[in-house]
Amino acid sequence: MNDQQRGSNAGNKRSASLGAVGALASQVKTRLAQDPSWQHFALNGAWICPYCLAGVRGHDDSRAALVRAIESHLARRCSVYRGGSGACHPDETIAAKKTFEDIAHRAASDAAWQVFDHEGFWYSPTSLKRVESVRLTNGRFDSFTIQAMVNHLGHCTAFQRGVVYPAATVQKARDQGMRAVSLAENLRELLQFPLWRYTNATGQWVCPFCLEHIPEVVLRGDADWTTAPEKMAWHLACSCATYVPERPEPKMEALVQQAAVRTSMTATPLSSGAIPRIGSGSSRTIGTPGTVRTTSPISGSLRRPNTPSGSAP
Question: 140 pLDDT band (50/70/90 cuts)?
Fold first, then answer.
């Protein structure tokens, strides 16, 4: 082969290469505009490759840079594309990968998604609840943590509605939740006193602080006492407008007894002068719970009373 032939072959190869690059660039632009499988973009700007599910980003935030990055990815890195002969993943799979990337981005960049308690459990910024299935392992925040978040949020109705609270609100929920844990320990002891065991006719617990009937705490039998302390504690820590952690002062038992038989659901606690005299036996109390803790109360929460009614000293 002479020099002229070698030069001609090299020129043909360059032309073929340029033609292939041009064809790929044209295909990328067309598919991005017309193919739904090519239109999945994460919050961080990454394009989700429908073939290998990799997140592809340009060197800057411009559309042109992203298109060039996609061309380079398909031509050099994607092992599934194979010149366009490979098969795309189903849209559901691509969307799931996008969700993972979105949550990973939020968890890395938004303080509302970075709230954990002292035991490493995550507080969801969408439901404001501690998520038992998401926990830091040895203090590490890694892909396993992200996947656990994804698994939880896949069933979270608040997340599906687009509800996301700011960081301060999530942190407050975390602090209230930690306070509720301490309160629950004390409430297991306090429940031996009648003051803490009044219910209305439907079994709703009567809070001895605000005198409200609490629909989240229904006590109709011994089995209900298993979770009663936690539910009562959550009401006190998060919902009760009358409870003051620094100085808990429950109402007198007579007022709680009278509140148990009223039908009004007003938020204002009834005063002694506004409540008619209730005859003996007209109120309803639940019997002593099947299990009563006798350990010492936790410091900083409700103290065990030294009066027969269970009132705070």
Answer: confident
Q: Which of 121, 137, 165 is the last residue of a domain?
A: 165
13 within a domain of the structure (yes/no): no
User: Is 231 inside any structural domain?
Assistant: yes
Considering the domain architecture, whether residues 194 and 233 belong to the same structural domain is answered as yes
Residue 238 inside a domain? The answer is yes
- 35 belongs to a structural domain: yes
pLDDT in tens, 243-287: 998 889 999 999 999 999 885 443 333 233 222 222 223 333 333
State pTM to two decimals. 0.62
- Average model confidence (pLDDT) across the chain: 80
Last residue of a domain, one of 121, 142, 165: 165
Structural domain span for residue 72: 25-89
User: How many of the other CB atoms lie within 10 Å of CB of 169?
Assistant: 14
Q: Tell me how far apart the alpha carbons of residues 248 and 271 are, in angstroms, rounded to a whole number.
A: 18
Report the number of distinct structural domains present in the chain.
Answer: 3
Query: Do both 117 and 175 map to the same domain?
Result: no
